[in-house]
Design brief:
Distance between the termini: 39 Å
Oligomer: single chain
Mean pLDDT: 97
CATH architecture of the largest domain: Up-down Bundle
Helix content: 40-55%
Low-confidence stretches: none
CATH topology of the largest domain: Dehydroquinate synthase-like, alpha domain
Number of helices: 15
Bound molecules: 5,6-dihydroxy-NADP, zinc ion
């Protein structure tokens, strides 16, 4: 394994009833709490009422910040930071999925920083020397794993850049994960989040170094789990076992543990992020379209690993097959799974028109070096074109 330093400062409370049991004890020091959430799902499913009642019974002043959109924008971050400064907020409580958590992490920094956080921390990797506002998160849709890392993916609409940076100082202080909170998530978003988790694991697994290592072993177990649990949750959305496994698999995939000793690839994510910057598409669904096309493209450069993926993750019988055939069958098993679940297989199905400036988008995609051969921008364009 490569050398590494591991740190994860988020304290996790997991299981049915954890919000009622622990939230009040986690906010004792705060006087004014910014309650950050999305576009209303938590009001429909009753989560909002539960949380407001706990905050009110604890005599907290609540500053509401709502309307956080999927693919949160830098403008929304600035709006939240202004509000936090105006009301002297001393803690942020983010209730939602990756978008709400990411936006809240950036607000936690922007609310205490005098400069332009986009320029200093997202346009390039910066060094955080101030102390961001403390952040707690309550996850209502699982998938991104944002609850247990310092990563925040923000879209700068003017610059047409969607990018994420991971700062340990932005790790939530605590994360409350009640799987029953995800029962009301739509099938589309369940699939999107589940595929996002699978994508994170694959982006780490299909990268160097490839000699036997703990991270790859864990990755295979987690991929098998996501496949099993996604099938079960689609069949029965109220299946607590499936929902709780999916929730923890999402956290495990992005709490930095799996990445230890690996280069990581994340080329599919870079492609999705820039598509998202231009057309505001759903993160997990776009990844489902991109992955098989990308993997067919690079399979010949990572034959041994794709063959191992076929045998260890999809249980494909290797008998009588050469490695290249087995490798291709592994990629096709992934594509079949995507079809079986009803995930999209073309960008057209996501409502994306071929008239978008594809070459310009392809040119804006950062090229990563940890996978099997660095792509060129022409290859990224070719992959985008094949996705239609
Ligand atoms: O906005 P509301 O009304 O709350 O509805 C949301 C939204 O429409 C809905 N939802 C959430 N909880 C629900 C619910 N609907 C019913 N019942 C509930 N309990 O779900 C929809 C999607 O929410 P969103 O937060 O946008 O989805 P997701 O969690 O997939 O987050 C996507 C964002 O996270 C970034 C993505 O790029 C994207 O911007 N990512 C963040 C990462 C990180 N910080 O580590 C890593 C990922 O790779 C990813 O890039
Ligand atoms: Zn993702």
């Amino acid at each position: 394994m490569n050398n590494f330093v591991f740190e994860n400062s988020t304290k996790v409370y997991f299981g049915e009833g954890c919000v009622e049991e622990y939230l009040s004890s986690l906010i004792v020091k705060a006087k004014t709490i910014m309650l950050a959430y999305g576009r209303g799902s938590i009001k429909k499913n009753g989560i909002y009422d539960k949380i407001v009642s706990i905050l009110s019974n604890s005599d907290k002043t609540i500053v509401e910040f709502d309307g956080i959109m999927s693919n949160p924008t830098y403008a929304k971050v600035q709006e939240g930071a202004e509000l936090a400064k105006k009301h002297h907020v001393d803690m942020i409580l983010a209730v939602g999925g990756g978008s709400v958590m990411d936006c809240s992490k950036a607000i936690a920094l922007a609310a205490v920083y005098d400069g332009d956080i986009w320029q200093d921390f997202w346009a390039r990797q910066g060094v955080i020397s101030c102390t961001p506002l403390p952040l707690g998160v309550i996850v209502t849709v699982s998938g991104t794993g944002s609850e247990c890392n310092g990563g925040a993916v923000i879209t700068n609409e003017e610059a047409k850049i969607k990018t994420g940076k991971d700062y340990p100082q932005l790790n939530p202080k605590f994360a409350l994960l009640d799987p029953t909170y995800t029962f009301s998530v739509s099938k589309t978003q369940l699939l999107s989040g589940g595929f996002d988790t699978l994508s994170h694991i694959m982006e780490i697994y299909f990268s160097t170094p490839d000699m036997d290592n703990v991270s790859d072993d864990l990755a295979e177990a987690l991929m098998r789990g996501v496949i099993r649990d996604l099938r079960a949750a689609v069949k029965n959305p109220q299946d607590y076992t499936a929902r709780s496994n999916l929730m923890w698999e999402a956290t495990m995939a992005e709490n930095r543990l799996l990445k230890l000793g690996k280069m990581t690839d994340f080329q599919a994510h870079m492609m999705e992020h820039q598509l998202g910057a231009y057309v505001d598409c759903n993160h997990g669904l776009a990844l489902a379209v991109l992955h098989p096309v990308y993997y067919r493209h690079i399979c010949s450069k990572g034959i041994a690993k794709f063959a191992r993926f076929a045998a260890h993750v999809w249980d494909i019988d290797a008998f009588g097959k050469n490695e290249a055939t087995l490798a291709r069958e592994g990629v096709e098993a992934l594509a079949d799974f995507i079809q079986e679940l009803g995930l999209p297989t073309t960008l057209r199905e996501l409502g994306i028109s071929k008239d978008i400036p594809l070459a310009e988008i392809a040119d804006s995609v950062p090229l990563t070096a940890g996978g099997y051969g660095k792509l060129t921008h022409e290859e990224v364009l070719q992959i985008f074109q094949t996705c239609f």
